[in-house]
Amino acid sequence: MQPLQPIGRGARIALGILFFVLFFAFWGAATLGGFVSPTFLADPVTMVKDGLYLLTEQGFLTDIGVTVWRVVGGFVLATIVAVPLGVAMGAYKPIEALLEPFVSFARYLPASAFVPLLILWAGIGELQKLLVIFLGSVFQIILMIAVGVANTRRDLVEAAYTLGATDTGVVKRVLIPANAPDIAETLRLVLGWAWTYVIVAELIGASSGIGYMIINSQALMATGQIIFGIIVIGLIGLISDFFFKAVNRRLFAWRLA
Amino acid sequence: MSAELVISNVSRVFPGVNGGAPVTALQPTNLDIPRNDFVTILGPSGCGKSTLLRIVAGLDKPSTGSVTLAGQPVKGPGADRGMVFQSYTLFPWLTIRENVAFGLREKGMAEKEKNEIVDSYLDKVGLRGFENHWPKQLSGGMQQRTAIARALANNPRILLLDEPFGALDNQTRGLMQELLLGIWEREVKTVIFVTHDIEEAVFMASRVVTMTARPGRIKSITPVDLPHPRHYTVKSSPEFSALRLKLTEEIRSEAIAAATDH
């Protein structure tokens, strides 16, 4: 193999699928072959059966819908707050000096540790779930966008000034478009993290959602259901990632030209 | 008649890094540039020629002195001083057409008038047919042509160029010089062109200003009386060779000074 040598599209897809096949084969061999006790790890066949049972008998689709709504809701709230703040912090040094130390500190506060407090403040309703995701995402987005905007190519900013751009013109017509692809990429990344927060939020004080189903299945020792829930999360993540990438490619064609 | 651009007593001292001694990039400098003059500033690297140009553009502040353009003191960058940089500074998210229109859009010009101006400058730099390309899809020479069109479309009082062809190969650079000179001969504009290429400095200029090694100051001003329109063949004329030789001597001693300084 030559370093950095590109491969064909067909080979790329085949190799990508191959690893999934290997993964499931190994799992199947370990469980169906009797090497691992079913009490600890269900085999793939049981997992699929449990999955079908959840979907048809237990109304698991509703749980999936609830969880997706929580992730998207909390994530959109975080985006609405974080993107303007991040751009402002990156563009204006006094705002950066004011907020950067606090945001850097707040970024390390684990969102999951806020769950008990948030239950106290917001009850166990939807607002609490959204707030967990919001707290987990918002500081990360702010900081990553601020760093990107602050590192905008200085010569492009200078060029805009010599073309008569005003200070706000530079923000609107240089800093924001120059960083839009990186902002979208940041959002894609943080959306992935939001999925871990939603499960944490649903493990405590929830009566619906994928996380709720998982914690319920633990009591029943239904490892097949737990694994099915985890795989569903993985699949939704994969789909949303794919969707995000496709939208980015369309919106930011200039990057790929 | 007073000069269009007056640089009076302009100097620039950069503060020392990490408590080091401050660095004088530019000693107090005086230069008057009349309207429609084409001045090239020639000097070894690190002589402060780019610093001087950036101060005229308003992108840097002088430590002493002032710059006035048409009687107005320069306080910051503005549309009356168009600039072309050595690095490729087209906005990568805008098409070639949108890049050229950037300044006009910033002025809030009506769509129809804007399009006419943009089209005419795309014609002048020979980029018709590339309007809807992204900058990335164009060669370095084409990108710099777009940058010139973008600066000129704004109709600045003065055009500032900071080694605009420095990153281009020799053949492309020669063609770009002719293109820019051709535009200047037809449109008549005040131009300051910074370069370290002696041949380029002579070919383009009505006056060549040479600068000393750091800390920079003006060493000499040499008028270039070669007739216009200038064709590239003028580069092989005896007059051209004499000017080149004179300036080579001047710059050589400065380059040696700069090289032994460190």
What secondary-structure arrangement, pairings included, does this model have?
The complex is a heterodimer of chains A (257) and B (262).
Chain A: H1 9-32, H2 44-57, H3 60-91, H4 93-107, H5 115-122, H6 126-150, H7 154-162, H8 167-203, H9 210-219, H10 223-251, H11 253-256
Helix pairs in contact in A: 2-10, 3-4, 3-6, 3-8, 3-9, 4-6, 5-6, 6-8, 7-8, 8-9, 8-10, 9-10
Chain B: E1 5-14, E2 23-33, E3 38-42, H1 49-57, E4 64-69, E5 72-73, E6 81-84, H2 96-100, H3 102-107, H4 111-124, H5 140-153, E7 158-162, H6 170-187, E8 190-195, H7 198-204, E9 207-211, E10 218-223, H8 238-261
Parallel strand pairs in B: 3-8, 3-9, 6-7, 7-8
Antiparallel strand pairs in B: 1-2, 1-4, 4-5, 9-10
Helix pairs in contact in B: 4-5, 7-8
Structure commentary:
The complex is a heterodimer of chains A (257) and B (262). Helix content of chain A is 81%, strand content 0%. By secondary structure, chain A is mainly alpha-helical. Chain A has a domain at 65-212: MetI-like (MetI-like fold). Chain B has two domains: 1-80 and 160-168 and 183-262, P-loop containing nucleotide triphosphate hydrolases (Rossmann fold, 3-Layer(aba) Sandwich); 89-155, no CATH class. Chain B contains eight helices and ten strands. Chain B has helices at 49-57, 96-100, 102-107, 111-124, 140-153, 170-187, 198-204, 238-261; strands at residues 5-14, 23-33, 38-42, 64-69, 72-73, 81-84, 158-162, 190-195, 207-211, 218-223. Chain A binds chain B through residues 155-156, 158-166, 169, 173-174, 177-178, 180, 252-255, 257, and chain B through 57-59, 76-79, 81-83, 85, 87, 89, 91-94, 102-103, 106-107, 133-134, 136-137, 147, 150-151, 154, 160.
